[in-house]
Amino acid sequence: MREQVEPEVLDQLDRRLIAALQCDGRLTVERAARVLGLSARVANRRLAALLGGGAVRVVAAAPRERPGSTMLLRIKVLRGKLDTITAALAARPDIAFIDMSAGGDEITAVLSAEAGQRSRLVFRQLPATSAITSVSAQTVLHVYADATDWRLDALTEAERGELTPAETAETPRRPAAELSPLDRDLANALLNDARLTAAALAALTGHPESTVRRRLGALLRDRVLITHVIVDPRRLGLDVDARSRPRIWTRPVAPWPPTRRCTG
User: Fold this and answer.
1) 154: Cβ contacts below 8 Å, ≥ 6 apart
2) Which chain positions lie within coiled-coil regions (predicted)?
3) Is residue 44 part of a domain?
4) Cα–Cα distances in Å, from 256 out to 43, 123, 127, 186, 259?
5) How confident is the model at residue 159 (pLDDT cuts 50, 70, 90)?
6) 256 in any annotated domain
7) Where in the sequence is the domain holding 138, given as residue range(s)?
8) pLDDT tens digits for 32-80?
């Protein structure tokens, strides 16, 4: 039986660089080095190791969906079927987040979709899956914060303020209006790597580099797109994910199958 190797916990310098990326996902090496008091060589080497080694990913995310279009799902599954159901959900574009219980029999997911699409998944597709034993769903009425709002406490307020782009610091997120074909091409290209250069984006999308640079700046400045840093919590020394009831406003949807609740 192969022994499971625990991931190495990142040191304080790496944590500070991650916190800097949370302020600006497209942060340059030169700016990071200047604000954090590092040499450009050290900053470049450390950032390259974090991003190239898979410890950290910077992706692009769309603004939050409007209230009422997002649901929280709690899905009970048969033991041994967790990976199969999780993989199927992760492949869906309308599933924004997935978490698995330590016990291996429950999945928590965030579903962002219109009413018709939600109903098909919650009331038809999931209950019809033999590996799923129950589904409960709640409609989100108000979001206080989500994963893109979390900041690692490794910077001073002055450093955080200097690293956050001035034009976006006080700009609220706004829902994307009708995006142009160019905007959609850029958004799709940045989904898995928000640090792609304008030259790389131009090559991927087939648009002129100058046009790409201008539109990308506008999308980020207006917060139509935001950057999100993804890091394994265990690499930060956070071994336990403990949660109680979500701190959001929700409207319950009748669970399937009906369940009894006991209080005591």
Assistant:
1) 12, 15, 16, 18, 19
2) none
3) yes
4) 52, 8, 7, 40, 8
5) very high
6) no
7) 70-142
8) 999 999 999 999 999 999 999 889 999 998 766 555 578 899 999 998 8
